[in-house]
Amino acid sequence: MRYPLIAAMALGMTVLPALADGDAAAGKAKSATCVACHGAEGKVSVPMYPNLAGQNVQYLNEALRAYKKGTRSGGQAEIMKIYMAPMSEQDINDLAAYYASLKP
User: Fold this and answer.
1) What is the fold, at CATH topology level, of the domain defined by 2-101?
2) Among candidates 41, 9, 89, 62, which has minimal Cα distance to 71?
3) What PANTHER family does the record point to (predicted)?
4) For the chain, first and last CA: distance in Å?
5) Banded model confidence at residue 16, pLDDT cuts 50, 70, 90
6) Average per-residue pLDDT in the chain?
7) Contact, 69 vs 101, CB < 8 A?
8) Which listed site, 13, 36, 38, 78, has its alpha carbon 20 to 30 Å from 64?
9) Which of 74, 78, 71, 27 is nearest to 53 (CA)?
10) How far is residue 43's CA from residue 41's CA, in Å, rounded to a whole number?
């Protein structure tokens, strides 16, 4: 019974540094272009786009980096690649922290 707790703690320690890398307030300021598809506060009104509010920060970081690199395909990947092209690593961290901090 002790081991699941240890595994959960280890997982938490791998996610927390990613949260520390991003600034949610800065991410909110950088999210203006995201609102058109992903909605205010990361909640969509058009079902073809995913909600971002409350999404896992590590997932968001990896997805945004994959769009930027062009290694993610399907759906709106080409559009996302255009939006992500000018984003720095800090921008990505900030956006991920912002959307992860929102209530789903």
Assistant:
1) Cytochrome Bc1 Complex; Chain D, domain 2 (1.10.760)
2) 62
3) CBB3-TYPE CYTOCHROME C OXIDASE SUBUNIT FIXP, CYTOCHROME C4
4) 31
5) very low
6) 87
7) no
8) 13
9) 27
10) 6
Domain positions in the chain are: 2-101
pLDDT tens per residue across span 45-90: 999 999 999 999 999 999 999 999 999 999 899 999 999 999 999 9
Residue type, 65: R
Mutual orientation of helices 2-21 and 57-69 as an angle, nearest 10°? Answer: 50
